[in-house]
Amino acid sequence: MIKIIFSGLLIILMTSCAAPPKILSCSYSGEPRWAEQKIAIKFYIDARFPIDKIDSLYIAVSKWNSIIGTPSIQIIPTNEIFDKKLDGINVILMEPEVNSLAYTRINISNDVIVDTDIVFNDNMDDYDVESVALHEFGHAVGLPHNNDVNSVMYPYLAQDTTKRQLTFKDVENVLCLYK
Ligand SMILES: [Zn+2]
Known about the structure:
The protein is an alpha/beta fold. It has helices at about 55-65, 130-140, 170-175, and strands at about 1-5, 40-45, 70-75, 90-95, 100-110, 110-120, 155-160.
């Protein structure tokens, strides 16, 4: 069974080697992005998010953070309850009745991302949380979907499969966004 990762709820939008390519071949530009490449995107994890799935988030974050010259992602477990709203506080939640595995909401002001929230489906029993998180954090830095089945930004993930590595093109795409 194939399940869509990314629903239409959004307001907008290799190998493990993360060495930047010498010459970038950028396939798109003008996507909304964070104002600065040196920004740290800080996410607070809602208290209701299952503790046993937080390690998967850390691993996914570490892969994006291995790229030099793009925003870094920081995740902070909390005992607090958060809401997904445009408040400049980036949160990671888990909710029932999400009609996809997860989605990332990005709020933009003048083509600059100012707030993002990631909402996971509370039933991910047959799906790899790390793979889904890698995809959603890609949205959080500003990447849209693409149609390369090997890319972590491909919008579908099959049940009981993993996609835990950024491709060379994934790395290139995010470098293009912040060049
Ligand atoms: Zn997506």
